[in-house]
Write a structure and sequence with these properties.
Blueprint lengths: L4 H18 L2 E11 L2 E5 L4 E3 L3 E2 L7 E10 L3 E7 L17 E7 L2 E10 L8 E7 L5 E6 L2
Parallel strand pairs: 4-10
Antiparallel strand pairs: 1-2, 1-9, 2-3, 5-8, 6-7, 9-10
C-alpha cells in the first residue's frame, strides 16, 4: 500500500494557500498600550510598534491656527485723549494738552491663536487593524466604541 501522508500534507498546504489567496487582507483588533511611541497589542497577544502602523489623518491630533476677535469685559478706566487741533490754530507738539476721560466701555482684542484638537489615539483605545495578506504593515481603520 503506497504512503499517502506526504501527498495528504501537500494537499492541505495547497488548500490553505488557496483560502489565503481569497482573503487579500486580514482584520485584527487591538488595544493601544502606548501613544508615544505608538504601541498596539492585538488580541492574539502580538505587539506592534509605530514602525509597522499606518495612522490615518482622522486618528491624529489636528493643530489649527486661526484669527480671533473677542470683546473684553466692560470696565471703568481712564484714557488720555489728545484734543483735535483747531483747523485755524497750530499747536506745537510740546504744548499739546491732554485730558482724561473716565467711562465704562469695552475694547476688542484681535490676534492669532494656535490650538490642538485632540483626535489622536489614547491609551486603552480599542482599534481595528487591517493588514494586507503577506504584508507587515497594519493600517489602523478606527477606534471601536
Amino acid at each position: 500500500m503506497p504512503d499517502f501522508s506526504e501527498l495528504n500534507g501537500l494537499i492541505k498546504t495547497l488548500a490553505l494557500e488557496a483560502v489565503a489567496a481569497d482573503m487579500p487582507a486580514n482584520l485584527e483588533y487591538g488595544t493601544v498600550n502606548s501613544v508615544s511611541p505608538l504601541i498596539i497589542q492585538t488580541d492574539q497577544r502580538r505587539t506592534y510598534t509605530h514602525e509597522f502602523l499606518i495612522v490615518p489623518a482622522h486618528l491624529r491630533d489636528i493643530e489649527v491656527e486661526t484669527e480671533i476677535t473677542l470683546p473684553t469685559d466692560a470696565a471703568t478706566h481712564t484714557h488720555d485723549i489728545t484734543p483735535a487741533p483747531d483747523e485755524n490754530e497750530e499747536t506745537p507738539e510740546d504744548t499739546q494738552e491732554y485730558e482724561a476721560s473716565e467711562e465704562t466701555h469695552e475694547h476688542t482684542v484681535t490676534g492669532m491663536v494656535r490650538f490642538t484638537i485632540p483626535f489622536g489615539l489614547k491609551v486603552g483605545d480599542r482599534v481595528a487593524l487591517l493588514r494586507k495578506q503577506g504584508g507587515c504593515d497594519y493600517f489602523i481603520l478606527g477606534v471601536i466604541p
